[in-house]
Amino acid sequence: MGATSMLKLFSLLPWASTSDDDMVELTRAELESLRAEIVDADERESHLKAQLEHLDEILKSARLSGYLYIRTRWTELPGEPPIIDDGDVDDWLPRFVVLNGSCVYYYLKSTDLSPQDSTVLSDIVEVGPLPNFVRENQQTRYGFYILTCHGLRFECASDSKIQADSWMTALQDDCKFEQPLTA
């Protein structure tokens, strides 16, 4: 949009004028409303800057980070009935996952200031591959799982085989697991 059309657009606004002779008068309430909007915009800007700085720090210090599709499962305890097979349910949710220090952090989005969940590496008892699966859009997802000593199993998947393999290798290395032999 050119400058001329922008001026025409602004001239249609009730408080705008293209003439130097016209004075704009605002009521006290209108002035206070504009001031409040400016303060709100400043607060939003500060919050967004804090989010960006937080993300920058996470990415600088993290060993590995990125979006993965995650779903959680519980392993059945002795004496419990078998868990219902829900393979037909698409409950894979995208999460921003960060391997940093002695924890794996799960964020809803990469810009979140605090994680939704976390797993301490010392609680992980097993990391292994999951079978690849094809989505409705014919795209293959490559998966792996993380099993904790509490019976919680995080199933993770990525559209990238390299990303899934990198996560599995990094977790196995950090948890001091021996890598399985691949055929």
Automatic annotation (TrEMBL):
GO terms of molecular function: kinase activity
Domain named PH: residues: 61-176
Signal peptide per UniProt: 1-18
Keyword Coiled coil among UniProt keywords: yes
A Pfam family recorded for this sequence: PH
Superkingdom classification of source: Eukaryota
Residues in coiled coil: 24-51
InterPro entries: PH-like_dom_sf, PH_domain
Protein name as catalogued: Nucleoside diphosphate kinase III, chloroplastic/mitochondrial
Species assigned in the record: Iris pallida
